[in-house]
Design goal:
Length: about 220
């Protein structure tokens, strides 16, 4: 898997370490507001794919286009529910939660854009609040890659990994796109920074000819 399984080399690198407990309550209000904004952007991607499908469908394939649209709306509703942090037990299965999340992201965001999704999720448990904040971060990173990394969609792929390493949970979003010049800058960076602060995590982004890779490292509970 060129550009996905290994770290790109020779590109711009930016690391950010965040985790001040005093900032958490202030950041969380910003995070929620900005996250809702990013969900609107996800709807924009969905709308664009629907317009493309219907314009290509023609009269004979209109039923198929409607069916595809319905499936994407259902997937988007499932994605939004996963990100809403409501009605979950205090501890959740990492494998079940993030496999469900990756499936919803793939169906609602990536497949309509012609982007393949791969996921590798390890087993374990996490507090529901940490799972939901990591999910917001992963969704932000995937949506941003879907919008900007693939001007030429041929062979486009995004890989999501969630693993426990050396006393920390390590979550990675990697694409084989054109390589961002500044992987942790832009409008979405405020969301990522606020969410990272709220769970005492740190971010590392790297980009090169093989694509862009952003890693979230969060201390595991003792």
């Amino acid at each position: 898997m060129s550009g996905i399984g290994s770290m790109p080399s020779g590109g711009a690198v930016r690391s950010q370490f965040v985790g001040s407990p005093d900032d958490q309550s202030r950041d969380w209000e910003l995070v929620l507001r900005e996250s809702h904004h990013r969900m609107k952007n996800t709807l924009t991607l969905l709308g664009a794919s629907v317009r493309r499908d219907f314009s290509r469908a023609g009269t004979r394939d209109m039923t198929g286009a409607v069916d595809r649209f319905e499936r994407r709306i259902v997937a988007f509703g499932r994605l939004y529910q996963l990100l809403s942090d409501s009605g979950e037990p205090s501890m959740v299965s990492v494998e079940a939660f993030f496999e469900n999340l990756c499936g919803a992201i793939a169906e609602a965001v990536l497949e309509p854009a012609g982007i393949r999704c791969e996921a590798a999720i390890e087993s374990g448990t996490l507090p529901a609040s940490q799972c939901h904040r990591l999910a917001l971060m992963l969704t932000e990173l995937v949506t941003n890659a879907a919008k900007h990394a693939f001007p030429n969609k041929s062979g486009a792929m995004i890989r999501i990994e969630v693993a426990r390493r050396d006393g920390a949970w390590v979550c990675t979003v990697a694409d084989n796109g054109i390589g961002a010049t500044a992987p942790l800058q832009g409008i979405g960076s405020r969301i990522l920074e606020g969410l990272a602060r709220s769970i005492d995590a740190r971010l590392h982004g790297e980009a090169g000819q093989g694509g862009t890779r952003v890693t979230i490292v969060m201390p595991a509970a003792a």
